[in-house]
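Note to self: keep these together.
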Amino acid sequence: MPAAGNYSAAEVRAAIGMPAAVDAVREAFADLAAGHFSQPPRLVFGTDDQAVLVMTAHHAPSGAAVVKTAGVVLDRDPAIVATLVWTDDGGQLTAEAGAVTALRTGAVAGVATDLLAAPGATGLALLGAGAQAADQVRAVLAVRDIRDLSVWNRSPRRVGPLLDTLATEFPHVRVRVAENAADAVAAADAVCCATSSPDPLFELSALPERVHVNAIGSFRPSMRELPAELLGTASVVLVDQFAAAGEAGEIRHALDTGLLRRGDVLELGDALSAPPEAKGRTVFKSVGVAAQDWAVARLLAQHSRRR
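Structure:
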């Protein structure tokens, strides 16, 4: 049967669980490293505060392609409003891509956490309580037995609804609201940063000696969630793809100041085939690539054929 239909955000959520999304994104990055995707650089129109992004990927072995358009307004909730179109030899489907984006952004953090975080990690810190936040937690819990969660957000009013959602889904996890970002990360085994901050959220000294840090919020040179010293001293600095993440504020600043060299930065697809030795502090910086959208859209196409 051909893939067909128009998936709302709720239908995307009903069709795809986070463990399946993590597996699909992991497979897509392996295919990306193997050269199976044609993935042009994303198009960006607009300003730092309000932009339209267009991302597309074609998967040669399957002949399937995805195109996503996303409107980003940083002071809007949700910040991203997007539409995705999937096309394969059997047909076409569309989906509300805000849910797709949150799923695939969480999923790639799950892939990186599974690769780099300590196997016995039980403590997670979440910085940010926006639209991406819950999926960051879901993804880490899909790959690690997290028991303690610390949450910090600049606007306290946004934390309550997020905690209600997480408490319902993960009643076994102990959750606390941290007074500040440094307090949140102080005892963490893994950290997820999901903010649009222009300045580092914490100092290097706030982190434990062994911790894995995901940063998915910043996507422009003017944004930086992480201190440059963290990237300069981490045992592993991982990105989804350097062509995409190389212009993000964390990576750009560390390169420009000499704390990081291009050869120090690994791409996720390569790291999956040759896992680096993770010790001390490790970092994963992601701005997202279209192959991730393709991976989640493929799950939707498979779901559509089963309906």
